[in-house]
Amino acid sequence: MGVWIANKDEYGEYQFNERLWPDWYKPENIEVAAVEHYRNIIEDSNITYYLYSCERLDSKALEGMKSDWLSFCVP
Fold first, then answer.
1. I need a surface site. Which of 3, 56, 57, 62 has the fewest CB within 10 A?
2. Residue 40 and residue 62 in contact, taking contact as beta carbons nearer than 8 Å
């Protein structure tokens, strides 16, 4: 299973990079390149996605990430 690391690009849109983790491992925080990333949960239909960002997101920012994520993963 992969977890996805979300970072904003120069245009303010999220770019996603996959990291491989065991299926059972979904921690609250992970460290990537010495930077702490926080778990964000996005649910779409019957699928739950775990995306990690280096900032804690409020509901408006989470909706922006969800929009970018769905554009990225759903053609």
1. 56
2. yes
Q: Whose CA is closest to 52, among 40, 60, 65, 62?
A: 40
Q: Is the dihedral of CA 50, 30, 53, 20 positive or negative?
A: negative
Q: What is the pLDDT of residues 31-42, one digit of tens each?
A: 888 889 999 998
Helix (H, G, I), strand (E, B) or coil at 29: strand
> How far is Cα 22 from Cα 46, in angstroms, rounded to an integer?
21
Query: 45-56 burial, b if ≥16 CB within 10 A, otherwise e?
Result: eeeebbbbbeee
- pLDDT tens digits in sequence order for the chain, 75 residues long: 578 899 999 998 999 998 887 777 778 888 888 889 999 998 888 888 889 999 999 999 999 999 999 899 875
